[in-house]
């Protein structure tokens, strides 16, 4: 999670609760639409902010969200931290309904390709219980292990496995990872596929030999690149082209095995680019990573066919359109922006998440033991504090209801917590200036949250730190 400075346009904000009841635009389980009023005072002027919102009490209250999603092909579900129970809980509830009611084909997460593909094979295999799912998720042993090695994901994986039982293979839903970090593991996964092709074996061994001196530590490699004592760009590029050419030469529809081999080669290609760039440019390495995740999503949709639909789970900093944050001024792009550009805004629906206070699983520094940390009340003038003053209840907000509000179409501080988190320093860099009605299509607000439930017995493997010390 990239740290950002608060971009509040308020000099002083006094929020007054004022609730009324109106009929919902269309019939729904909740039955009413709550309308709140915020009073923002700047000098002697006051501005009334009307924020229509819908109550979020149980899964039936998601009816209005499913209705607004409509026929979107890609639904991106964010989170304001990587360690909050409710974000995982509600994303899982939305995911299940999208699969059951709208025929979505797979969920793609901010996780590693190789680890997540094993989850994909698990949920498409024979029936397994929750204990087997927990054991499976212990493979997410790259720090921060709790992001995917947790009991909330185990519950979803168990449900996906059960949901797939009895379905023909083409109709089984999938689970895939979009990220780029674990290039060594992807190279290991690739080797069985290329073993019968002498040219590919030679190229793959060339990649292995080039990276071998760095003991699976990508930052050692990056530092060697900076010293001009190493560069594996040629080896990874050659392997990627040869794996691609193998599929094209066959002249037959791409098999899943070849798709997976290509993806592992792509992780090696872009992982090398990412770590090489990380030493010199935060912006370039960020963009390499998000372009890779967007490309992986496109490859998955193309492979599943022209009518396929995808659900994406990533941090708000990846799914919320970067053009409506201060990321744009830094030259940074993200997945939400790239997906909207690729498929058109009418085919993409982005849901942001946030909360006012609670607890979270995070760490005090990179690689440190995870712990439960108290999240203080959102800072004055932030988006989360406005919503708390509106009413201290969980709610859904739709951007279409805010588009004509001139006040909310300016940057407002929006909290973002990474895997590294110090609440005492939160005011210095955990608020991303955001034009909320443009950044998302909907926003789920949880007033008070609790920490995720990590799987406790995962042994962390040696891995380098992410680009940004706070972790996204």
Spatial gap, N to C terminus: 4 Å
Task: Give me the Rg, rounded.
Answer: 22 Å
Main sheet specs: 11 strands, mixed
Structure classification:
alpha/beta
Mean pLDDT level: 86
Can you tell me the residue ranges where pLDDT is under 50 for at least 5 consecutive residues? Answer: 1-46, 464-470
Bin the strand percentage: 15-25%
Please report the number of helical segments.
Answer: 16
Number of strands: 13
* H/E topology pattern: EEEHEHEHHHEHHHHHHEHHEEHEEHEHE
Silhouette: globular
Helix content: 25-40%
Structural overview:
The chain is α/β, with parallel strands linked by helices. Helices cover 39% and strands 18% of the residues. It has 16 helices and 13 strands. Strands 1, 2, 3, 4, 5, 6, 7, 8, 9, 10 and 13 form an eleven-stranded mixed beta sheet that branches. A two-stranded antiparallel sheet has the order 11-12. Helix 2 runs parallel beside helix 5 (151-164), helix 6 runs antiparallel to helix 10 and helix 9 runs antiparallel to helix 10 (256-278). It is globular and about 65 Å long. Mean pLDDT is 86; it is low at 1-46 and 464-470.
Secondary-structure map:
Layout: E1 20-23, E2 32-42, E3 45-55, H1 63-69, E4 74-77, H2 85-102, E5 106-112, H3 113-123, H4 130-137, H5 151-164, E6 174-179, H6 183-194, H7 198-211, H8 218-226, H9 233-250, H10 256-278, H11 282-304, E7 310-313, H12 316-319, H13 335-343, E8 348-362, E9 371-375, H14 383-390, E10 395-398, E11 412-415, H15 426-429, E12 431-434, H16 436-439, E13 442-449
Parallel strand pairs: 4-7, 4-8, 5-6, 5-7, 8-13
Antiparallel strand pairs: 1-2, 2-3, 3-10, 8-9, 10-13, 11-12
């Amino acid at each position: 999670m990239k740290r950002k400075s608060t971009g509040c346009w308020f000099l002083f904000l006094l929020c007054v609760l004022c609730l009324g009841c109106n009929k919902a635009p269309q019939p729904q389980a909740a039955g009413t639409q709550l309308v709140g009023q915020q009073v923002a005072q700047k000098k002697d002027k006051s501005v009334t902010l009307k924020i229509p919102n819908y109550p979020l009490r149980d899964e039936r209250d998601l009816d209005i969200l499913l209705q607004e999603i409509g026929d979107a092909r890609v639904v991106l579900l964010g989170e304001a931290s990587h360690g909050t129970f409710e974000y995982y809980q509600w994303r899982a509830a939305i995911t299940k309904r999208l699969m059951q009611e709208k025929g979505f084909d797979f969920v793609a997460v901010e996780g590693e390709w190789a680890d997540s593909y094993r989850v994909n094979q698990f949920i498409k295999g024979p029936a397994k219980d929750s204990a087997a799912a927990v054991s499976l998720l212990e493979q997410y042993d790259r720090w921060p292990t709790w992001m995917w090695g947790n009991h909330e994901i185990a519950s979803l994986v168990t449900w996906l496995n059960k949901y797939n039982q009895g379905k023909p293979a083409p109709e089984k839903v999938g689970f895939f990872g979009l990220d780029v970090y674990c290039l060594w593991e992807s190279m290991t996964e690739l080797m069985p596929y290329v073993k019968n092709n002498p040219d590919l074996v030679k190229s793959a061994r060339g990649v292995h030999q080039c990276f071998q001196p760095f003991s699976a530590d990508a930052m050692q490699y990056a530092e060697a690149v900076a010293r001009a004592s190493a560069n594996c760009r040629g080896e990874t590029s050659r392997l990627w082209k040869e794996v691609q050419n193998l599929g094209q030469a066959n002249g037959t529809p791409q098999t899943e095995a070849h798709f997976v081999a290509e993806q592992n080669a792509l992780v090696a290609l872009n992982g090398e680019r990412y770590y090489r760039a990380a030493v010199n440019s935060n912006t370039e390495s960020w963009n390499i990573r998000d372009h890779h995740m967007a490309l992986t999503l496109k490859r998955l949709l193309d492979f599943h066919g022209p009518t396929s639909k995808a659900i994406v789970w990533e941090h708000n900093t990846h799914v919320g359109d970067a053009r409506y944050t201060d990321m744009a001024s830094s030259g940074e792009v993200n997945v939400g922006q790239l997906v909207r550009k690729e498929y058109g805004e009418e085919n993409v629906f982005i849901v942001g998440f946030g909360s006012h206070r609670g607890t979270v699983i995070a760490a005090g520094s990179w690689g440190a033991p995870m712990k439960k940390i108290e999240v203080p009340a959102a800072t004055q003038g932030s988006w989360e504090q406005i919503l708390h003053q509106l009413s201290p209840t969980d709610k859904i907000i739709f951007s279409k209801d805010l588009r004509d509000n001139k006040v909310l179409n300016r940057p407002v501080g929006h909290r973002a917590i990474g895997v590294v988190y110090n609440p005492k320093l939160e005011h210095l860099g955990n608020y991303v200036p955001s034009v909320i009605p443009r950044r998302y299509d909907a926003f789920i607000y949880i007033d008070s949250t609790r920490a995720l439930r990590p799987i406790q017995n995962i042994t962390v493997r040696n891995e380098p730190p992410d680009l940004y010390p706070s972790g996204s």
